[in-house]
Amino acid sequence: MKLLAIETSCDETAVTVLEAHGTEDDASFTILGNALLSQIDIHREYGGVFPMVAKREHAKNLVVMLDQALEEAGLKLNTDIALPQTRIDAIRALLEREEGLADALIAFLTTHENPGLDAIAVTHGPGLEPALWVGVNFAKALALVWDVPLVGANHMEGHLLSALTTPDPENPSAFHIRDVALPVLGLLISGGHTELVAMDDWLSYRLIGQTKDDAVGEAFDKVARMLSLPYPGGPEVSKLAERARERGNIVLPALPRPMLGDSTCDFSFSGLKTAVLYLIKGRDLTDTEKEEVAHAFEEAVGDVLFGKASRALLETGAKTIVLGGGVSANTHVRRTFTERIAKEHPEVSLRIPEPRFTTDNAIMIGIAGFYRALRKDFMNPGDMRANGNLSLT
Ligand code: KG4
Ligand code: ZN
Questions:
Q1: 366 lines ligand 1 (CB under 6 A)
Q2: Is the minimum distance from the CB of 235 to ligand 1 under 6 angstroms?
């Protein structure tokens, strides 16, 4: 099955062409073309992602990304096509609020034919709604003109499934989802989410725990701001913390491990963030002190994430644990889980995503789209809506 996948839920405009086959238990994928444009440099100036700016940038870049992905896949089929006026009107109606996108798409569709796609998958949530709508409307227009089935992909399902993949040793563009022992416990940690979900059977989820306030990625970003580090803060905090660890011999400032001792699998990060604020308030920190604060913060985060995941493993009897979302890129979190799962839950298999799957991309949307397409879970373009709060459970 050849899928086109589109991701615009936050600040990455991404389009992928994915070849996929197999079953839920044994699926194989090859990336044919992958285009991704990060808006990070634009949002950095504002210190965060502004939904309307993200929306404008997606509208500006989606056709360029589509063109690039198809080109890389060798699927850019140039011809002259006389689009019926009714189609042109439909595209204009769908994209009336996405400035300039209708014109660009019409120009593309009058010069390129359907490259033999079997499905178009698009993120319809969760995420920033204005940003999501651009991708959704774009996908609807493509599905309509090319007459291809449309699949709605849940962004978090994309994070989870892509984190279960194993690379194909013979082909760097290929990977598989196989030999996964169910039930799976997913720890989804990103800028908007911190949740533990059990996948008892493929695509069937139960919420085991979630944050009561800030998401862990958000806490990283806020602590980074307190330390005058640029957005997005996660990777910056991580760099500082790793420097402190390399130096060694440090007496760490004491920070709380919120909710670690209670009997739930829920999280709280706002108290930790406030504790960091009090720790540094009114002080002019040296670079070394900043590294120590970053280190102490990461240690607290690692303890809480692992402690809650560990409790959830016991509660669910999961045989596999998988980390997904932007924060799963974090070196300390990856190391903590690798060491402590081996030691404390040796019977559980740990899956940590390859770095290319940790932050937002369209490959993961293609994977989620394939699993949904296997179940013929197609959507009528008229019924698809972007939903910023779309839930897995
Ligand atoms: O999944 P993602 O790319 O976007 C959302 O769906 O939210 O996650 C972005 C979040 C940001 O908060 C970012 O600071 C954090 O992931 N992040 C990290 C690292 N890389 C990204 N946090 C800690 N360490 C990292 N290396
Ligand atoms: Zn994400």
A1: no
A2: yes
